[in-house]
Amino acid sequence: MRYEGVVYRPPSEAESLLIQATIGCPHNKCTFCSMYKGTRFRVRPVEEVLEDLREARRHYGDWVRSLFLPDGNTIILKTADLVRILTCARELFPRLERITVYGSARYVNKKSAEELAALREAGLSRVHMGMESGDDEVLARICKGTTAAEIVEAGRKLKQAGIELSEYYLVGIGGPELSRQHALNSARVLNQIVPDFIRLRTFQPVPGSPLYEEYRRGDFRLLTPHQALAEVRLLVENLECPGTTITSDHVSNYWNVHGVLPRDRQAMLQAIDYALTIPETTLKPREITHL
Predict the structure, then answer these.
(1) Which residues make Cβ contacts (< 8 Å) with residue 85, sequence separation at least 6?
(2) What is the pTM of this model?
């Protein structure tokens, strides 16, 4: 297998085979992200990807259970090419239970309902979508390149195609000024989609990202740990997503908020209320210096 640059994957794909299908991110303008800032986006030739899959089969045998196809927004691949990759993977690894990719709303919406159905039939089982926020003002500020309405459209299209959806909510990305509308409008958007997973990430300024420089200049203020937890509480109490799993599967979060809606709502709120009684100085530092 050949890898180019730093390869990123969601924490939930820790046990997955990683085969790069694209290099970098086609949007690459989000101000909070540093992951692909020095990388020019390109699509790998399909034959190279298939060769890597065959090499993985020779190395691992047929025991691979999950496959993730980096880099950012692999959903952008031509549908026919992605179908070839998915089909080959399933033939080489008959024990595969899950094949997943990153895909933002902007690029999911370039696919028709028929194309998404074809991808599901070929084996695409889950898309990790960095929604970040359901508030249009926040989305514009962070240069996400999409709107709340487009996020709803993309989420619904994936669900209708039978593809699992992990939506990522970025706690604190609106700063103290927009925290409330960030949480409430994000809950409104998520309620219209009812994703399979809502994955919480607390914004931490990362060197190499434009928003890190804003933070250093004092132009962007972080939420305190208690403010961040209060924002999560507001989100959780306004979500109406039956069967959706909320999870805090990332080191950036101040507290482990996890459960299935609506069953575990009160338990999650109680856990947050307890965390709010803990002195902020004992919670994790707010700044990280590496990815």
Answers:
(1) 21, 46, 49, 50, 53, 69, 77
(2) 0.94
Q: How far apart, in Å, are the Cα atoms of 260 and each of 15, 150, 164, 166, 211?
A: 23, 25, 15, 14, 32
Q: What are the b/e assignments for 238-250, b being 16+ CB within 10 Å?
A: ebebeebbbbbbb
Amino acid, single-letter form, for residue 222: L
Q: What is the CATH number for 60? A: 3.20.20.70
Tally of domains within the chain: 1
Residue 234 and residue 222: Cα distance in Å, rounded?
17
The DSSP call for residue 286 is S
- Give the pLDDT band (50/70/90) at residue 285: low
Residue 98, beta-bridge partner list: 66
Give start and end residues of each alpha helix (H) in 166-224.
175-193, 210-217
**137: pLDDT confidence band, cut at 50, 70 and 90?**
very high
